């Protein structure tokens, strides 16, 4: 169980009651010198350090934008672009670097990823493991 | 039914109050010791909101231009006065800057103009001691078909900035806009404003269509040389340019326009011997990044050695002249191998010729850490590029002025206010 400071099991930090998070809600918590953003997306909790891998911007304070997809026909002709709202991107407010909110992958260069932290739900509360 | 309509609440929840947007820049500055030595930002901007233009308009001398400015500001925005910029897929909806694009500015009022407060706040967060400020919308003013409007607005802006804004804080300087489509008016600008303590040089915006080696500009170069004042060429793009109009994406026209606009002027400067005719003229090339420099050096040297007779004014290689000039760093291309970036620094002798610039608050701004974190630079070289070179070029006192701010600022999307159109690159 968490103590009065929210700490649990030495490295689990309580974020809040899971029921308080609607899909798309987030909370940014301070853990020592580090800030961590905790998001609920598609019913799951994900957590990332609030530091963009580009220039260190506060990525967890960014807005969500849908994945943009190019549409071609079978003959290779462009039919335009469409927004896929089922794939939300977290967009850094400094320079628009976009990350898949569900995985933390930088969508323009998948080998780059936000620093992620595991999350657990325990007795109705959500914790981030640091 | 679209997916957006199926889950509007999810995306609506992405617009949340956030903390201090530059807090991470402050952390970078603290951990790297950037508050310990002078940093000069040779190119930062401000956005011309209605409040700014209301203060500027009385300085417009020509009655017809002033009356139109009053009318267009009342009906739309300052951008309407400049015109000509095509907008598409701007990142302005995705990036967040306090005080613009519908995001509230919650910095407390200390009696100074909001432009001054907001600029100093950002400087302190990034450990920047001096900033050379330039207006965003005027980057495109060189395309205006009416030279008298270009000259009239440039003069009014210069009066407003030097009389009302810059006296409020000596850490903010400017290189004033030169209306190059009217050489006589440009010369008067140099003569009338070069003694102002906040004016540290003059700026030509690069999207324009008069060749810079034309004899009509000789008196301006001569006047600047006499005064030992730098002349900067600030890159931009013109989507209406015949070549650029082939491009269908903003990313394309921005990537090419911001480099070629300066490459054209640089090439004319070199091949027509401007550095030989005005050896004391100090030229600074702004906001083209760095990758164009080794390209143009190699390209021009190679051609010059085959067609030497066509450029008889030169007494050395084009690249040698380029190493006698200065360059601003932003937007520094950083995606290549470190060895390629290091080669760029080597060929341009960056330790001596490169000046840090942030371009804040634009979407492609660079924090000082972009220079400081380069692994191949010595500590001395980092300090030269971040501040020392500019201190020497502009004659600023080598003092540390920035301190970590104690006041934080919260940014909220102001849903009730009209969202201003994005004004620039």
Structure description:
- The complex is a heterodimer of chains A (130) and B (425).
- By secondary structure, chain A is an all-beta fold.
- Chain A has strands spanning 7-8, 12-17, 26-31, 34-41, 44-49, 63-72, 78-91, 98-100, 116-117, 119-122, 125-129.
- In chain A, the strands form 3 sheets. Chain A has a 4-stranded antiparallel beta sheet with strand order 1-2-11-10, with no helix packed on it.
- Mean pLDDT of chain A is 92; it is low at 1-6.
- Chain B has one domain: TIM Barrel (Alpha-Beta Barrel), CATH 3.20.20.
- Helix content of chain B is 41%, strand content 9%.
- Chain B is built from 18 helices and 8 strands.
- Chain B has helices spanning 3-6, 8-12, 23-32, 50-56, 63-75, 79-82, 114-125, 147-165, 183-193, 218-227, 250-271, 274-277, 292-306, 318-322, 338-347, 350-353, 369-372, 379-394; strands at 40-46, 130-135, 172-177, 199-205, 231-234, 283-286, 326-328, 354-355.
- In chain B, strands 1-2-3-4-5-6-7-8 form an 8-stranded parallel beta sheet.
- In chain B, helix 9 (183-193) runs parallel beside helix 10 (218-227).
- Chain B is globular, with a radius of gyration of 21 Å.
- The model of chain B is unreliable at 414-425 (pLDDT under 50).
- The interface between A and B is medium-sized, with 28 and 32 residues.
Biggest β-sheet strands, sense, barrel of chain B: 8 strands, parallel
Strand content of chain B: 5-15%
Shape of chain B: globular
Element order, helices and strands of chain A? EEEEEEEEEEE
Low-confidence stretches of chain A: 1-6
Greatest interface (CB-CB under 8 A), with counts per chain: A-B, 28 and 32 residues
CATH superfamily of chain B: Metal-dependent hydrolases
Calculate the terminal CA-CA distance of chain A, rounded to whole Å.
Answer: 16 Å
**How many alpha or pi helices of chain B?**
18
Structural class of chain A: mainly beta
Q: How confident overall, as mean pLDDT of chain B?
A: 89
- The DSSP helix count of chain A reads 0
- Which sequence of strands runs across the widest sheet of chain B? 1-2-3-4-5-6-7-8
